[in-house]
Automatic annotation (TrEMBL):
GO terms for cellular component: cytoplasmic microtubule. Signal peptide: none annotated. Gene3D superfamilies: Leucine-rich Repeat Variant (1.25.10.10). One of its GO terms (molecular function) is microtubule binding. It comes from Populus deltoides. InterPro entries: ARM-like, ARM-type_fold. It comes from the Eukaryota. One of its GO terms (biological process) is microtubule cytoskeleton organization. This is TOG domain-containing protein. PANTHER family: ARM REPEAT SUPERFAMILY PROTEIN, CLASP.
Length: 221
């Protein structure tokens, strides 16, 4: 049987117009700029925060009139303002420590609270603040702020034992500042409480700090 030729005269269905899809660019958030809380909840993106080294901090002009405002701003609900206030607290600690001393326990409680915050910028800024507080006040922390100091020491051991590298490194620096700024024996009594902690990582960090203290004690002047 002969094949019938194809009839090219048949109408062809018109091609449907293509839909235009709008492409929206979304910036990629770096992992190191994302905070994760202790309960492993979803990370929270941070705005850009400058991490200022202690050497780059400057004295405060007219500190007597600004100390009260500092304490008020530390209670801000805006975490970026808390970061700014913590940096100012660092400046007071380094250059105007006598003015900060009456408010030191309050400042340390804010530092501890900030370390528990899910935002990485607030965590790092608070750890940096603890280092400057250690250098500025040393053994005074054991006398006048014992409860606040105990809470701060526990948080530093927790942060130093986390998996987040940038948090661990900053917390390790703060613990080293602790070793350098305090008389060994009183602080050893504090650290001994954590070598039997239920968290094995905290045990390890406490043991390392104790080892550093022992090295400091036997090192010739």
């Amino acid at each position: 049987m002969a094949l019938r030729p194809i009839d090219n005269s048949l109408p062809i269905a018109p091609e449907r117009p293509k839909k235009h899809v709008k492409v929206v660019s979304v910036p990629i958030q770096k992992q190191s700029e994302v905070g994760v809380n202790d309960e492993n909840k979803a990370p929270l993106p941070d705005s850009t925060i400058d991490y200022i080294s202690s050497d780059d901090l400057k004295p405060i002009s007219d500190p007597e009139s600004k100390i009260q405002g500092l304490i008020e701003r530390l209670d801000s609900k805006d975490w970026t303002k808390v970061c700014e206030s913590l940096n100012n607290a660092r400046r007071f600690a380094l250059y105007h420590s006598s003015l900060l001393l009456p408010f030191l326990e309050k400042v340390m409680s804010v530092v501890v609270k900030a370390m528990k915050n899910p935002r990485s910028a607030l965590i790092k800024t608070s750890i940096m603040a603890s280092s400057d507080i250690f250098y500025a006040f040393g053994d005074q922390l054991l006398d006048s702020t014992s409860d606040a100091f105990d809470s701060l020491l526990l948080q530093l051991l927790l942060k130093a034992s986390q998996d987040k590298k940038f948090v661990c490194e900053e917390a390790d620096r703060a613990l080293n500042a602790l070793v350098k700024s305090m008389t060994p024996l009183p602080l050893l009594n504090k650290l001994k409480l954590y070598v039997s902690h239920v968290n094995l990582r905290i045990r390890a960090k406490a043991a390392i700090s104790i080892s550093n203290f022992v090295s400091k004690m036997v090192k010739p002047p």
